[in-house]
Amino acid sequence: MSRSAPANAPPQPRPQALDRPIYEFVRGDSPLLISLPHSGTHVPPALAQRLRAEVLDLPDTDWFVPELYDFHRELGASVLRATHSRYVVDLNRPPDDTPLYPGQRGTTVCPTETFDGEPLYAPGAAPTRGEIDERLRHYWQPYHMRLAELTAQLVARHGHCVLWDAHSILSTVPALFDGRLPDLNLGTADGRSCSPERAARLAEKLSAQSTFSSVINGRFKGGYITRHYGDPGARIDAVQLEIAQAAYLAEARTPQFDPGRAAPLRALLRELVRAAL
Q1: CATH architecture of the domain formed by 15-276
Q2: Given pLDDT bands bounded at 50, 70 and 90, which one contains residue 8?
Q3: Residue-wise pLDDT tens digits, 139-180
Q4: Domain boundaries, the chain
Q5: % of the chain at pLDDT higher than 70
Q6: 3-state helix/strand/coil string of the chain
Q7: Rg of the Cα atoms in the chain
Q8: pLDDT 10s digits, 207-265
């Protein structure tokens, strides 16, 4: 049986309270599901008015990750893509803010500061506990209900599901980690979220190329999505790939996408995802 949405999560929201869909979905015909929880950039206007002007450029966005995976149709992948910024709610964090990496600085399900420690909100405008609960109902829960539904459907249809959680981050964020990240940071929750055979195929692909540096279960072992839904015993293999943005763009506060610069990485991602299947 596939993993369900967490029992302690809030109930489904009232749809009329939303100003646009919470996610976009493309259905495929293979066992692969690509999750894109942090590439959204929409901030509801009432919330944007409470954010400091200095952070309205959304510096912690997973910039252009959907463009990196635009080959998904040729692999028959289903794609679940969040539309809202992680500053509204972080879909890859536990609803109760249990630390993913105990002892290290982390981020919360409703962030109040950037990765660099800048405050997101104007003085006195940070969300209350009640507002956080409301955001969980309106944004977090529907995404996870859909993830749970889709993984169950793929197992029922194909006998297994491969959940690929796609992310990117600046290559250097001193407040979160020391030094520069490797280009490709593959996480399998220290082997708990993915079968050894599938993980070995991915490791082989990474080690066979020399263009991009890589690590498996380094600083990023997988967030809430990978850890909660990955269940090899239930035929759901989940991996998270965190890409250092320097691997495909010129890092800046609000970067621009250069298809030519990103082409080598896209080619490798296609091979990695193919290997996962």
Answers
A1: 3-Layer(aba) Sandwich (3.40)
A2: very low
A3: 999 999 999 999 999 999 999 999 999 999 999 999 899 999
A4: 15-276
A5: 94
A6: CCCCCCCCCCCCCCHHHCCCCCEEEECCCCCEEEEECCCCCECCHHHHCCECHHHCCCCCCCCCHHHHCCCHHHHCCEEEEECECCCCCCCCCCCCCCCCCCCCCCCCCCCCECCCCCECECCCCCCCHHHHHHHHHHHHHHHHHHHHHHHHHHHHHHCCEEEEEEEEECCCCCCCCCCCCCCEEEECCCCCCCCHHHHHHHHHHHHCCCCCCEEECCCCCCCHHHHHHCEHHHCEEEEEEEEEHHHCCCCCCCCCCCHHHHHHHHHHHHHHHHHHC
A7: 18
A8: 999 999 999 999 999 999 999 999 999 999 999 999 999 999 999 988 999 999 999 99
CA 70, CA 266: separation in Å to the nearest integer? 8
* Of 164, 175, 185, 143, nearest in space to 239 by CA: 164
236-244 vs 78-82, strand pairing mode: unpaired
